Amino acid sequence: MDYVGRIFRPPSEANSLLVQVTVGCSHNRCAYCDMYRDKKFRPKPPEQITKDILEAASAGAVNRRVFLCDGDALILPTRKLLAVLAQIREHLPWIERVGVYGDTRSVGRKSTEELTALREAGLGIVYHGMESGDDEVLLAIDKGGTRAESIETAAKLREAGIIHSVMVLLGVGGVARSQQHATNTASALTAMQPQYVGTLTTTVVPATPLAQAEARGDFELPGKFQMLQELRTIVAESNFTATRFSANHASNYLPIRAEMPRDKEAVVLALDEVIARGDERMLKPEALRGL
Ligand code: SF4
Asked: Which of 65, 102, 152, 279 has CA 20 to 30 A from 111's CA?
C-alpha cells in the first residue's frame, strides 16, 4: 500500500483497511491541528488507488471495513469517489462499510442525491470534526464552517442515509469562551441528532496557530476540571433520541461510553462526583493520554 506521510484515522477504524485517496487536508488551517501541515493537499493518482485496492484484494478478506484517508477525502468530486467505491465493491466484495472524514465544506458541496449515490455505492459513515457549536469559537479556530452549516450537514447526511459521527473538542474555546462553547455545542448536537458523538480534549501542539495565540496571551487552555465541566454541560444540556456518546479517545482525561438518552443521568452524576472531588488521581495520568 502506498502511504504518503503520517496517516490518521478515527479510533473506531482501527481494524479497517486504510486506502489513501487524497494527500493532506484541503483546508489545513484549523488553529489546533498539525496533522497535515507538512503535506500539500492533492488527490492521489487513480492508478495508485487502483494498485492499492488490488494489492489489498490479493491479501484476501482481512478487513471488513475500509477507511478512505486523508484529512477530508470526501472533498473529492463525487464521480471520483464513486469510481473508488466501485473498485472496492468489485475487488473487495467482503467490505461491509466504507468510512471517510468529511465536514461542512465537503458535505456542503454535494447534493443530497450525490450523497445518496455514494451511500448506495458503499459509503456508510462520515466522521465530522465539528469541534464546537459556537460560531465565535469556530471563527477563532479558523474551522472554515459555521454552526448552521454543521446542522445542515447533519440533515443532509441523514436524508442520504449515511451514518454521521461528530467530534467535538473540549477546551478549544479557551477559558474565555469555555461556557458558551459547551452550551452552544450541546444545542447544536441536539439539533443535529447524529448517531455518534465523540469528545476529544484539546492539546496545544507546538508551532500551530493555537500555540502562537497561547504565547501571545490570546488563548488560555482550560484546566482539566474545567474541561470536564464542559463535558458535563454538553451531556446535561443536550437531548438525544438515539446517540452513542463517547469520550474514550486517547486524549481524554475521563473515558466515557454511553447510550443516550438512556445513560444521560448516570453520566452527569459520575461527572459531578469527579468534578466535586477535584482529585486528579481519578483522571487518566498525563503520560497515558494520547495527544
Ligand atoms: S479540517 Fe481536520 S485535518 Fe483539516 S486542518 Fe482542520 S482539523 Fe486538521
From this structure: 65
How wide is the angle at C-alpha 72 spanned by C-alphas 100 and 249, nearest 5°? 65
Is 178 among the domain residues? yes
The pLDDT tens digits of the residues spanning 238-250 come to: 999 999 999 866 5
The parent domain of residue 175 ranges over: 11-288
Comparing 24-28, 210-214, 273-277, the range with the smallest average pLDDT is 273-277
Sign of CA dihedral 186, 192, 193, 194: negative
Query: Which CATH number fits the domain that encloses residue 164?
Result: 3.20.20.70
Residue 159: inside a domain, yes or no?
yes
Dist. CA 81–CA 86, nearest whole Å: 9
Number of domains in the chain: 1
Minimal CA–CA distance to 71: which of 122, 33, 125? 33
Helix and strand counts by DSSP (H, E) for the chain: 10, 10
Cα dihedral 45, 143, 175, 277 in deg (nearest 10): -60
Residue 23 CB less than 6 A away from ligand 1: no
> Best mutation site among 8, 72, 75 for ligand 1, i.e. most ligand atoms within 8 A of its Cβ?
72
Residue 1 lies in a domain: no
- pTM greater than the 0.85 cutoff: yes
Q: Name which residue sits closest to atom 2 of ligand 1, judged by CA.
A: 71
Residues 46-96 have pLDDT tens digits of 999 999 999 999 999 999 999 999 998 999 999 999 999 999 999 999 999
